[in-house]
Specification:
Elements: H1 7-19, H2 55-68, H3 75-83, H4 110-123, H5 127-139, H6 157-169, H7 184-190, H8 217-228, H9 252-269, E1 274-275, E2 285-286, H10 287-301, H11 307-316, H12 318-324, H13 326-339, H14 351-356, H15 363-377, H16 383-406
Antiparallel strand pairs: 1-2
């Protein structure tokens, strides 16, 4: 679920990295890699890593996760997110200089915009920003009814699904948002593998160069949510069975969701987790996509359907989350929320506390701290009374210890 977890983003990062000009080495004796100052990022931002590609995404996920547990983000964090929006309504992943207007070179995209919409809806009080963002998303809908990561890019399952989530949370009906008569559900149905295929029921990210659809677990988790008309935050669904290629009169989008969930269930059956498909990471667990799969399964069939991967995450995700930062903690909290689990006791970890620590102190937490301090200061005895108590207790313990040492010699 990083920058909507899409292959398009990974490819873009590779291209950008390859095209970046080489920096001439400083040949002076004092030059060293450690001499480079660490860039200063805004105080309102969650996480400490480079936000160039995922700033708005991780900020939005963090706030959505906090909202599910009643935590109110710091005003500075909210202001930072709102400030990333361009005049046309779109969001870029990160704009270091928000005083400058966005232009044609500003890398706005559908994923960060859709995530921001969902976060701002949850926060409340940002109707104008939400309306502008939704209008922009509608303006870049493709002729097949879907959305690509970048405006005008080929539709993909992940982007189309996260935009569906934004439309729904903003009060829109995705089935009524059309381009050339096509809806987002039409686009998703075309990205679902036919039942005759070995991986029938799964979703592809996009067709390959030959037009073939290849099963993608990441895209399938997103596609299930999109086909159900769900956003990033879901509650446990009803016990609808996940069965491949059902035909009991269900609408095509519902059939796609049920079949996609069945594919995920099969993929998770052996180990309880999905496996990474990134180059060089073969045979390694994919924690983020496993969390997404938990949300998708729970959204369709309820908590029981996602129990095995949820338990696996509880036992194995701590190190990954610590290394990955706010978006990872948010994913785990959203998985817990979708299944009714306690994110404050997730395999023994307090995910809420850990997420809060990656950003500015939330308003609710700050208020509680102030109230606690005031309560202590307002004590009729005062702080010195507590000091006196501790001194008396300490002296008493000293006598006891002294008596124990001297007792046998008496």
């Amino acid at each position: 679920m990083y920058v909507r977890r899409s292959a398009a983003v990974l490819a873009a990062a590779v291209v950008i990295g390859a095209a970046a000009p080489a920096i001439a080495a400083d040949s002076s004796p004092s030059a060293s890699p450690s001499a480079s100052p660490k860039p200063a990022y805004p105080a309102g931002l969650y996480g400490t890593t480079d936000p160039t590609y995922d700033g708005v995404w991780r900020q939005s996920l963090a706030m959505l996760a906090q909202n599910t547990v009643g935590v109110k983000p710091a005003k500075g964090a909210v202001d930072w997110l709102v400030g990333q929006q361009c005049a046309n309504g779109a969001f870029a992943p990160y704009r270091a200089d928000t005083a400058a207007d966005c232009d044609a070179k500003t890398p706005v995209d559908t994923n960060n915009t859709a995530a921001a919409v969902q976060a701002l809806v949850a926060l409340g009080g940002h109707d104008a920003a939400i309306s502008k963002a939704v209008t922009w998303l509608k303006s870049v809908q493709n002729k097949d009814g879907g959305w690509g990561y970048m405006p005008g890019g080929a539709s993909d399952t992940n982007s189309t699904s996260v935009v569906i989530g934004a439309l729904v949370t903003a009060g829109e009906k995705p089935a009524d948002v059309r381009k050339d008569g096509k809806t987002a559900y039409d686009a998703l149905n075309k990205l679902a593998l036919p039942c005759k295929d070995d991986d029938g029921g799964a979703f592809a990210f996009q067709p390959d160069k030959k037009g073939k659809l290849l099963a993608n677990a990441d895209a399938t988790a997103a596609g299930v949510l999109g086909s159900l008309g769900k956003g990033l935050v879901v509650s446990p669904g009803k016990d609808a069975p996940a069965t491949r290629c059902v035909s009991e009169g269900l609408p095509a989008s519902q059939q796609a969701a049920v079949s996609g969930a069945a594919y995920l269930t099969d993929a998770l059956a052996k180990d309880g987790h999905l496996t990474s498909t990134l180059p060089g990471a073969e045979d390694q667990p994919d924690y983020g996509n496993t969390a997404d799969a938990v949300v998708a399964l729970a959204a369709l069939s309820g908590a029981d359907a996602a129990e095995k991967p949820l338990r696996w995450l509880e036992q194995n995700s701590a190190k990954w989350a610590k290394q990955s930062g706010p978006a990872a903690y948010a994913q785990l909290i959203l998985a817990a929320h979708a299944t009714g689990a306690d994110p404050r006791d997730f395999g023994g970890a307090d995910l809420v506390k850990q997420l809060n620590a990656t950003g500015p102190t939330p308003q609710a937490a700050a208020k509680a701290t102030d109230e606690e301090k005031t309560k202590k200061d307002d004590s009729p005895f005062g702080v010195w009374w507590y000091v006196g108590i501790f001194l008396v207790v300490g002296i008493g313990i000293g006598f006891l210890l002294s008596g124990r040492k001297k007792g046998p010699q008496a």
